[in-house]
Queue: 2 jobs
Job 1
Amino acid sequence: MIEVLYFAWVRERVGVPRERLETQAATVADLITELAAKEERYAWAFADLTSLRVALDQDLSSFDAPLAGVREVAFFPPMTGG
Amino acid sequence: MRLSVQAEPFDLGAESNAFAAGLQGAGAVVTFTGLVRDNGGALAAMEIEHYPGMTEKAIAAMMDQAAVRWKLADALVIHRYGRLAGDEAIMMVATAAAHRAEAFAAAEFLMDYLKSRAPFWKKELGVDGEAWVAAKEADEAALGRW
């Protein structure tokens, strides 16, 4: 089981702020492919990966990163702090 | 060093005074404050979302890096989340160092990193609707100078 979090417009598109998922995905990219194939709302959220960022266990990561041992995955748009 | 991620407003004067009091070996204090631009009355409010846990972790790492690089005597970051009205203070950074060049550089470094590497997302609630603030390429490019 993996905890998946969504923020900002990714959260709005997916429709929930977080969920626990059962997945066999080996990488972040595999997880995205799996989700996008599942339902239209995910396909919409993950339509443009250039405008998405991912964090694994609260550290910024990349789409080709492996998910082995990861407890928390977060998807969000580029950050706008400050 | 102190970091506060909070919904409540903060008192810029009180925070600045408290920061500047009791510093050891510092000759320079720089403070920066970010405000909500009201876009000439077109903005009703700003909603700031963040990622509890990662926010603190990411900012603490930036502060540690700045402290070592510019030999800071102290540093402070306050960043708010939730709903803010126009002209309200969103965040502040304060840095203290032996000389002003280090204090200014550390403050700019922290600002550049807070913009693009701290997990906050701003949504503008305007009189004509709402929109997420898009990240600017210039903000990402600004990281390159460090």
Note: The two ends of chain B are 21 Å apart (CA to CA).
Job 2
Amino acid sequence: MVGLRAGLRGMTNPQLWIAVVENGCFFALLGLAFYFNLTGAGFFNFGIGAIAMAAAFTGSWLVTEHGLSRPLAGVVGVLGAIAIAVVMELAVVRPVQARGEGELSALVAVGASLFTIIQLSGLFLGHEARSGQPFWSTAPFSVGSARVGSTVVPIVVITAALFTLSYLALQRTRLGRLTRAIGNDTDAARVLGLPINTARLLSFAAAGLIAALAGITFAGRSGVSPDNALHWTITGFLALVIGGTGTVWAPLLGGALLALANVFIPFYFGGDVLAYGLVVVAMLFFAFRPEGVFAPRVRV
Amino acid sequence: MTRFRATIAGLLTLTVGTALTGCGSSGDDDNGDTVVIGLVCDTTGPGAGYATPACTATKETIDQVNADGGIDGKKVKVVQGNDESDPTKTPTVIQKLVSQGADALLMLTSSAGVLQAKSLIERTKIPVFMPVAANPQVTEPPSNTYLYQLGTPTSDWATVYCAAFDSLGAKKVAFLQDSSPSQVQFNKGLIDSLDCVDLDVVNGAIDATDLSAEVAKIKNAGPDAVLVATQNANFDVLAQNTLHQQLPGVPRFTELLLSSLPSAWAQAQPGALEGLVGLAGTTDTNTRTVEVAQFFAETEGADFRVNNFWTQSYDAVQILKQAIEESGTTDGEKLNAAIQEVTGFVASSGYPGFTLSFGDDKHLGADGICGLVLVEWDKDNQVAGPWSGYEPDCAA
């Protein structure tokens, strides 16, 4: 009975559920960025975390060191992130894949790009963490016994908007359907003469945009540093692995499940076992549900 | 395939090259007319927050020594390396600096790396200072003959915390630490020494994006005070943001790092640091500190704000200079013996009257606990000054 009460104490704590919502939105957005790259280019872009970090870190640097307004710095950060994503496709992924060197070579090249972005950010903007400078935040407020921080509402609204727009863009527009078709079977799309390069480029740019908005908004909680990049990449990848790739909403579910683990594993088992807990969750999915919760439907 | 390899090689070169940017040397080996100081600065790794200012302070102090004629007429030359606080790299960096003729080493990096390199340091037979380290294990036997620390050990931290808790009537204290192995090892001695209170240790992942669960556990336990024990500024700020939000009114304490990192204060949400009490190493009631601050401000500008990273780095160079002048040589063993003769060195850290002394059995320089200052943050997330609740006594 005591154990049950202790168990319920966590599950009925509204503060923890607010944390689940906030973290879940962030993880879901990173997962959505992965999803766009996978859908449009058939490729896991492990540079997503670095792109999100670079956008938030650059924006913060522009505000704190050069006095730019937050909205303007945010725009620069987003545009910079899109530019990095596009360069990553044009200068790294596409040339490697064009030579037929396979998926692994492209992944290695993108992995190197991730570390390059981390190092260059540290070299030019400093290795110390910077304060987050979200272009939109609200005054903290209370809901019952729980406090809602300044970044919760913005990240929820941005997540809802980006997922809805992504759904509409991919499902209801000709370009979206084209992008999905190319991602599903690039070779067939090439035979049919579809604009593969344009669709790939757009998917990388969209991923950069989503990652940037996620990074800039979430950094408002406790800042950002180059060290965040790798962790954010792994987080986004796990959100996609758990959610699956069957629908654009899959990363949202994956992000939410990951956030549940992220909040309740430390509560019940301690923060020092969080990493092990996440590994177990990931291994369970890899072993028993490698396609994630939402598996792609294949027409035979 | 060749082009691909070239691309990969280029990227790797760029990455590795960037990673090694902090490394360098000023060239030739010691030729007898110079004193060579090896400087290990973690300016790109997890210790960059404190190592970067400490490294700058050390170089500026050496520049001043050279401008004043050097040490016994010999110019001081710096050879520098960067181990990125990675214990696997520390021995290699030390060996490189020794091969470049270093007569003494100033290690501005994590204790973990130096702990790994203790036997190597013992064999090299040159004095090694850890100006800003606080882990007393570094200078404990065995293999501590040439190792010295200027920072106050964690056992002294515990004495100060206990007095502070007592002044608040706090009997039950939550101890929130990041669960990185180095931090857990670092905090072990502190936890053992905090036997004055009922301590509830809560671990959080060092790279956590959220500490709501950890703080909820703390809240459920109903502590009289919370001590955030980390050397990671991001973790500290995230913890303070969360504690401020979920446990308003509960006194909060932090370790030595945050007070020395004004850039990290800006990371905190508005008002999140208000009322926080943290360890610091400097107060402007110490005229020696004010003098040293003015010296650094000449180079760093009017906005310069002194902290213990600067003052302890300054003192390390001055103690080394004094020992070389006393011994008249840079021979490692003779220089080491001269360092152990340094007593009552008036420190530029801590409260007035704080001194540093070394000896055969005393490798921790601090004489007493008044090298520590408890400071309090205001509603603007700025350090307002010494905490009124308790002031360490130099006579204690």
Note: Residues 70-98 of chain A form the longest helix (29 residues).
